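Field log, afternoon session.

UNIT: design team B
ACTIVITY: writing a sequence onto a fixed backbone
BACKBONE:
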């Protein structure tokens, strides 16, 4: 099955972990395997949506001296030489400390396509979402299995391009039980918002992509790739992406 034409991929890297050189090699592999979207995470010490793999990656990146400025500079250079759509993922405290307008202006100037801020609900982060649009970037909103139809309409008003659906409780990294209720929720999200749907949290193998194919538009793979880098080395990421794309 040619998954490249069935479902798009979004991959994830914590910047500065284990180092920027490895991040750069990962991007080269993503490009080679026709990954459409790349989520680059600016590390934060209290990454509440992240599981153990990403929590450790955030902490070690910060210990290594990774700064917001270094991350933005890396993103700029990466966008200049890669065709993927680049998204920044971070927590609101990072943006607040940098200055909301300063951060969004800088991100827009370097060509960032989208912003994901998991701890900024649309009600509390209204300014963030509206300003993202004014800076010609796409704010990405998050839905869960418990998001009501009414709430989905609110998300659709504030978000752009696609809804990021987290199909279970908890944090990133652990295996998700993909069942019919996941497919049903994806269809509800798409029908109520008239937007595409990205599914993340727990996608670890080709069978997960095959389950989502025909329902989700984008599959997000993050912790699995980071674990491969840790346990087997960056070169094995190429093998993994080839395998799930077959």
């Amino acid at each position: 099955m040619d998954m490249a034409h069935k479902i798009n991929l979004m991959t994830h890297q914590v910047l500065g972990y284990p180092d920027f050189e490895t991040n750069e090699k990962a991007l080269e592999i993503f490009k080679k395997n026709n990954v459409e979207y790349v989520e680059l995470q600016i590390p934060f010490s209290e990454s509440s949506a992240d599981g153990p793999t990403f929590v450790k990656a955030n902490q070690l990146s910060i210990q290594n001296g990774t700064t917001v400025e270094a991350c933005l500079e890396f993103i700029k250079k990466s966008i200049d030489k890669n065709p993927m759509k680049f998204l920044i993922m971070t927590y609101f405290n990072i943006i607040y400390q940098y200055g909301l307008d300063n951060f969004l202006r800088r991100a827009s100037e370097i060509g960032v396509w989208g912003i994901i801020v998991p701890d900024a609900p649309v009600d509390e982060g209204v300014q963030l979402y509206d300003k993202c649009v004014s800076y010609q970037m796409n704010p990405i909103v998050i839905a869960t299995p418990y998001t009501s139809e009414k709430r989905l309409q609110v998300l659709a008003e504030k978000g752009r391009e696609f809804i990021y659906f987290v199909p279970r409780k908890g944090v990133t990294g652990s295996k998700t039980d993909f069942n019919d209720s996941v497919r049903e929720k994806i269809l509800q999200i798409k029908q109520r918002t008239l937007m595409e749907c990205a599914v993340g949290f727990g996608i670890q193998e080709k069978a997960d992509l095959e389950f989502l194919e025909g329902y989700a538009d984008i599959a997000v793979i993050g912790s699995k790739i980071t674990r491969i880098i840790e346990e087997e080395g960056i070169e094995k990421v190429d093998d993994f992406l080839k395998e799930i794309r077959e």
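LOG NOTE: The chain has one domain: 7-245.
NEXT ACTIVITY: expression trials, pending approval
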